[in-house]
Amino acid sequence: MTFQVEFEVHQHTFAFACTQSWSPIFLPGAEIRKLYQFKIFRSRYIQMSVAIQKQFYGTNSPWELSIGHYRAVRHGQLIYVSGSTAADPDSSPNAPGVLFPGDARKQALYTFGKIIDAIKALGGRGAESIVRTRMFVRRQEDCSPVSEAFRDILGRDNGSGIGTAATMVIVAGFCDPNMLVEIECDAVADAE
């Protein structure tokens, strides 16, 4: 069963076709004011605002849906990736779940994978496009496993072009007590 949904947010009308599971589907040639939506695959999509030349990347994660933000935004060559966690993509926005409870390293590795996917979707190369990383951990004992995951994915450049500035901060907590790490990244895409 497929049906069209339209809604208005901040004077922009959004429209897309949905299946029963509310996954966006590409509408060929659909122009809704200044916003276009392109299907990449089932649960991920890119939107482009013509007026201000920004591209938006969303994954339909439960947190993106409940809060109403995008996973990443590209403006010019700059790509900004929102705070990302190991949220269970199959969980409901009303009751978001977390993957790998109790394992900060696995949560960080999964999260870096989501971030790299977002960067690639918006025209970046991947890990080598990242220039700054901010890691927020819930407990002191999470610093070491998250640092290991960081080194595995983004550690100092050994000739591969990968290397990034980084900050790690211990915070009081997250939206879900099973979240042990949240990561933000900034990246630079190659000039087109």
From TrEMBL:
<protein>
    <submittedName>
        <fullName>YjgH family protein</fullName>
    </submittedName>
</protein>
<dbReference type="InterPro" id="IPR035959">
    <property type="entry name" value="RutC-like_sf"/>
</dbReference>
<dbReference type="InterPro" id="IPR006175">
    <property type="entry name" value="YjgF/YER057c/UK114"/>
</dbReference>
<dbReference type="Pfam" id="PF01042">
    <property type="entry name" value="Ribonuc_L-PSP"/>
</dbReference>
